[in-house]
Amino acid sequence: MHRIGVISDTHGLLRKEVLQILSGCEVILHGGDIDHLEVIERLKQIAPIYVVRGNNDGEWAKEIPESLSLEFYGFRFFMVHNKKRISKEISDFDMIIYGHSHRYEESKIGQQLWLNPGSCGPRRFQMPITMAILEITEDHNYQVKQIELFQKTFSKEKEIPNNIRQVIGVVIKEIEHKKTIEEIAKRNKISPKLVEQICRLYLTHPGISIDGIIKKMELS
Question: Is a pLDDT exceeding 90 seen at residue 154?
Fold first, then answer.
């Protein structure tokens, strides 16, 4: 049995739960929107990693390809961040790995598997935090296991303070000083889940205002 970890859209956050799950894998596939080189370096300590560049990966990631063609354990893989950017003939591939939407998607088109593991980075709104494990047997069969972390959602009333504009301003300043989500939450006594939401919106919407963040969080 071979195990391949499939993740995407980490946006600078590697959760300890994700690392624990990946520790049993022989290969890691990352569908892009990494945000920091440190994410790749940390994953390399677990297993060989193959990654494509996402739309939010900046100048530091210019050497990372937008797509990859790979073969493991008798299966041919094609990787791209946004499936809408596929510009080559892919009928010869067995599995298409992609990301971008933050939504888990798994479908068969003919004999071809299309798999988006979702996002296991900062939570986007109330969307699930997901990843996938691909298990391949020696007799050329496979099974995809969807993994959802932290399935219990949280109450907006309990997590979101009244002074939300002030909180968002503080979080933005901390992000600009390269603080981690855990540091921001602890230093300012803010829910880590709320910090994740703010970080995600701020990092993926360059130039967004505090009011813009509030609107996208559906709090206005």
Answer: no
